[in-house]
Each structure stands twice: as C-alpha cells, then as structure tokens.
Protein 1
Amino acid sequence: MTQKPYVIDELISAKAIAARVEALAKEIAEFYADTEKLTVVGLLRGSFVFIADLVRELDLPVEVDFLEVSSYGNATESSREVRVLKDLRGEIEGRDVLLVEDIVDTGYTLRHVLEFLGTRHPKRLEVCALLDKPSRREVDVKARWIGFEIPDKFVVGYGIDFAQRNRNLPHIGAVRFL
Ligand code: IMP
Ligand code: MG
C-alpha cells in the first residue's frame, strides 16, 4: 500500500519540548524525593525518545525498564484490548514506578497497562505522558504529569510515528494530507 502524500506542520518545537521535559523532571523528582529507587517504565515504542531525555534530567536513583503492548486494530475495536508483547525484565513489587507514555488518546492503552502493572503490586505507580488529547478520551484515566495538551490532530516526531515513519523528527508536528 502506498502512503498518501503528506506534510508535517510543526506543533511543538524541540526547544519547547526540552524546556518542558526539564520542568517535568523537577516535579517528578520532588514527588519521589524519598525513594530508594525509581523504576521508570517506557512504553515501547513511542516513548523511547521522551524517556531518554526525561531520565537524563531526573536527579534520582533510577532504573529503566520497557514494556511493549500491541495497539488494538480494527478487529478488536469493540473491546480495545491490548496484549503484552514484551514484558518488563525486572520486578516492580513494592517499588516506586513511573510509567512513561507518548500520548494519551482514548485512554484504553493506559487503562490496560495500569491494570496490568497494578497486578504486580508496585508501591507507587504514576504516569507521565508527553502528550494528552483530552477531547478524544473515552475512558476515565489520568496521567499525573503531562507535557502538553494538544488538539485532536495526528502527530508525529520525538519518537512518535505515522505507520513507523517520522519517529526521528526532533520536534512534534501534525500530519496534513495534501
Ligand atoms: P489510546 O489507547 O487511544 O489512548 O492510544 C494511545 C496510543 O495510540 C498512543 O500511545 C500512540 O501510540 C497512539 N496514538 C494516539 N494518537 C496518536 C497520534 O496522533 N500519532 C501517533 N500515534 C498516536
Ligand atoms: Mg504508544
């Protein structure tokens, strides 16, 4: 299948992202100030750039782990189930955990992942999402920390893809079809 031609309009500059990541890291470090160790869990693949920048600004004892889930296709549209494709390598029972997500859209992915991680009984489990599209929400989930609220646009860059493309864009842009 060939992709329809499109252009990318800059929505959030690399500079604005860097400033926001620094501010988020400060808030997160304050919240977990008394932690022995914080396990930062990146949800693959969209969060890989964000988590790399975020942990380097985090002045805490940190461990990094990754979880990959399938995004639901049209076949499972009614249940919006997600499957775990790659589980964590480490234990999180009794640990402080920060889940790092790229975008909260309908909220189904975040809800399933929080349920999944919750069964392992972490001590504190919080979420930091780079982007939030509140107008798209279908289930009631919230990230404690959000980088930017954005309108209902399809975005790419800074780790986020459109059909696996544009993850390497340093800023965040909105896809516009020609
Ligand atoms: P949700 O389950 O509907 O909240 O979907 C969240 C996931 O859908 C995100 O983690 C992204 O992987 C993907 N997603 C949602 N909106 C966009 C977008 O604008 N661009 C790229 N991926 C998106
Ligand atoms: Mg994702």
Note: Residues 26-149 form a domain with the Rossmann fold fold (CATH 3.40.50.2020).
Protein 2
Amino acid sequence: MSEILPSYLAGSWRSGTGAGAPVHDAVTGELVTRVSTDGLDLGAAVAHAREVGGPALRELGFTGRAELVKAAAAAVAERKQELYDLSARSGCTRADAKVDVDGGFGTAMVFAALGRKGLPTGNVIVEDEEVPLGRAGSFVGRHLLTPRRGLALQINAFNFPVWGMLEKLAPALIAGVPTIVKPATQTAYVAEHAVRIILEAGVLPEGVLQLVSGSVPGVFDVLGGQDLIGFTGSAATAAKLRSDPAVTHRSVRFNAEADSLNASVLGPDATAGTPEFDLFVGALVTEMTVKAGQKCTAIRRAFVPKDRLDEVSDAVSSRLAEIVVGAPGAEGVTMGALVGLDQRDDVRAQVEKLRAEADLVFGDPAKVDVVGADDGRGAFLSPILLRATDRSATAPHRVEAFGPVSTLLPYDGVADLVGQVARGDGSLAGSVVSNDPDFVRDAVVGMAPLHGRILVLDRDDAGESTGHGTPMPQLVHGGPGRAGGGEEEGGLRAVRHHLQRTAVQGGPGLAEALAR
Ligand code: NAP
C-alpha cells in the first residue's frame, strides 16, 4: 500500500494526483502510503451527500436509521482484526488498537440501541410540554426537531481514526444527516480501511458515507446553514477553522473537541497504603502509557497534597520503570510508538518547554530502550514524569506534550487546588481520587465549571470504573475553553445536535399531529 490512498466520493473510489504527503510506519519508518486530494472534485461529493445521501436517509426515519448504524458497527466488529493489524503500523499495541476499534464499534452500538429504543419511527421529535399562549387555550406552542437537510463534515485527529469516525458518524446517521469523513493524514489509512469495511458490507444507502483521504480545499466554501462541521484536533486548528466565513457568515453548525491539560487530584486522605493512593498512581501510569499518551483525555497535570510529592514521585516512577517500550506485538511490550517522527519531535520540544519550569523525575526524552524494533527508525519515546514545585510555574498549565508525559504539581487545600486547575483554561476530563466525601464535594463542585466530565474514584467504585480517560457514549464528551467549548456523545443529545429545533405555534395537539 504505497500508492495514493483512495478517497470514496460520489459513489466510487478515486485517488488524488501528484506526489502526495508521505505517511510512514511509526515502528519501522517504511513508507505506508501517500495522501493527496489533488484533482478530486470535492464539490461533487458535497452535492452527492445532499442530493443522494440525505433523501435516502430521511426515507428511513429515526429507528430505521438506528438499524443502519447497528449494521455498520457489526461490520466493523466482524473485521476488527484487520484494523488491529493496520493500527500496529501507527505504533499501537493490541490494547491501544482495541481502545480505538472496539471503542469505535462499541460506541456506535450504544447509539444504535439508544436510537432504536428512544426515538420515534418517523422524522419528527416532539419536545417539551405544550405551552399555552392564549387565555382560552385554543393557541399553544411546542418545539419540534427535524433532520437538517445538509451534511456533516467530520474532521478528525490522528489518534483515534476509528473511534473518532464512528462516534461522530453514529449520531449523524441516526439524525438523518449524511457524512463526509476527513481523517488526519498520519492515520488516514486506518480510517480508510474502516470506511471500506462499512461500504463493503453494503449496509448503507449510497451517498450516506463518503471519505476524503487528504485535505479539503474549497469544501468550506460550499457549506451552508443546513450543514455541520464536527472537528477534533488541536486548539490552534480549531481556532482557524471556526473563524472561516462558513461558520462566521453562513452559520454552519460547528463543534470543536480540542486539546486539554486534564487534571487528576489525589485527596488529602489518600496517604500511601490506602486503596486511593494506589488507584491514583495506577490511573496516572495508565493514562501516560495507553496509546503512548496520545489521548486528548490523558492526565497531563497530577495534583497531590504539597507534603506528598516525594512519595507519589517514587511510587509513579517505580511503576513506570516496569513499562516496556517497543514494537507492537513484540515479547513483553506494554507501550508502542508515537504516530511518527514529527510527532516525537513535537513532544520533545514541548517537554523542553515544561522542563524550563519543572524537574525531570522519570525518563529521558532523548533516549529509550526499545524491544523488537530499531530505535533509530521508529518513533519511540520513554514515559516522562516531571514535577513542578514552584507554584508560579505556567508551562504545566499551558503546554500540551501529546505523548507519554505528565507533570506532578503540589496543592495546598481545596481553594488553591481549584485555582490551579482553572489555570488550564478548561478541560475534557478530570478525576478526584479520594474516600473523603467532604473533600470530594468541594473539589468536584469547584472543578465542575472547568470540565466536561469528572470521575470520582475510590475503593468502592474502582472495580467497575471505566477510567479517567475513557469517554462514554451515554455521557457528554467535551469541555469548556481550551477544550473547544463543544459537546459530543451524551447519548441522544448528540443526535439532537444534528437536528433543527423549530417552535411551532397553533391549535392544541398540532405538534403530535405533525409528528404522525
Ligand atoms: P490537528 O493538527 O489540529 O489536526 C486535526 C485535523 O484537522 C486533521 O484531520 C487535520 O488534517 C485537519 N486540518 C488541519 N488543518 C486543516 C484545515 N485548514 N482545513 C481542514 N482541516 C484541517 O490535530 P492532530 O495533530 O491530528 O491531533 C492531535 C490534537 O488533537 C491534540 O492536541 C489532541 O489533544 C487533540 N485531540 C482532541 C480530542 C478531543 O476529543 N477533544 C481527541 C483527540 C485529539 P491533516 O492531518 O490532513 O492536516
């Protein structure tokens, strides 16, 4: 697979022209593919979604479309091994690939179940209660939700090529909105294969799912008020895209999931030897090493009571020393590679910014022992633990090193903790690890306005906990401020995001009559 990676546009697979952007194997450095959309008619894909995909979807109604999503998820589940194998080329261990692949089809199946059970058969959802608008009761108002008549353009980050695609696709399809997927260049070949699996299963009507393997020049120019953009990626790209006239002048509905300096907090009660201390240390190591730390929800800032820094540093370091870095699938390997050498350069540069204000506790950014691969060719990096004792340090609250990197920070009481957490300017996920209900209440209530999701972890819920870094399809994923200010998932909220809410005024029972 080293020719130009195909796109699926207007009913057929087509490849761009020119040399394309090379994509290399994260482990061996070999060329995997090239990515280009030069010469492709992307405007025709937009028209195809609107004219062919949209009407086909709207014929099915909500529950019929939920069945489509179930079938698409089942198709991916059936061929998951192919996706695990490809994901290894992007540096993922089997466990990492499962987070993306199983997480992806699992999320789509949850959406399908919610849609089948919780939505009507037609295309109209009646919301809220009837509101009387006149004295005699002959004139009332109510809200209706109907499918937008445009398309959803999803622009995804490199780290979750399958999950990122399916968690956006499922609610859009259930809502009745066709989708164009634009994966990130570095892992576009994994997303391409997932799309191919779904299309080969023959479960979706034509025009409902298209794929652009590469950049999307001119597409924003033809988007309008019935369309949606769902973006996941860095805050810098989010800022650029949300200032496009498509969003600012033509009101394309824009949702951003951006980066985030997520915090985890060790409670004052959680001294060494308590279950909560071990849970905190274990969660931090997990979040640093799963997908080599390339997770938007990973713990970047680990807050500990100020007199506990030494014991936490020691405990985390000894757990990190057990991590074996190397080729996915090689004997004993527990952490794979970053997605590519450019990404490793970027993480190293960010670590240098952090080191200007924090000390290195574990790991060497320039050197790592690697199993089963050539460390000169693959994008390997040691887990890096830092520690900032100076409370005026700014870098830990500003700099995202998108790799296996986390910083320990001291806090002195809940007010100080909340003030410091706020310096991250809004996050996707936070966690409070404590068995003290008073501390938990003060910390969670203080941190809640700064977060899209907060996990409270203790000895009683740990057995069933889904973990700090795992967004759940039933619950909101997103966060304020730097995290993008958007919301994804959240069960049927994500479906409603793709619908238009219209206040309908008239006689009593009008809304129900319209929904029949
Ligand atoms: P990125 O560089 O911002 O790219 C994200 C996506 O935007 C890619 O598909 C990229 O395409 C595309 N893009 C860039 N410029 C564009 C333009 N002018 N027009 C249209 N599309 C454009 O981010 P990344 O490096 O892939 O991902 C890492 C970042 O994503 C991290 O900061 C991480 O925290 C964040 N992230 C957030 C979440 C979340 O749910 N909040 C999830 C995962 C990752 P190309 O690759 O083709 O340039």
Note: The chain has two domains: 50-259+489-515, 262-473.
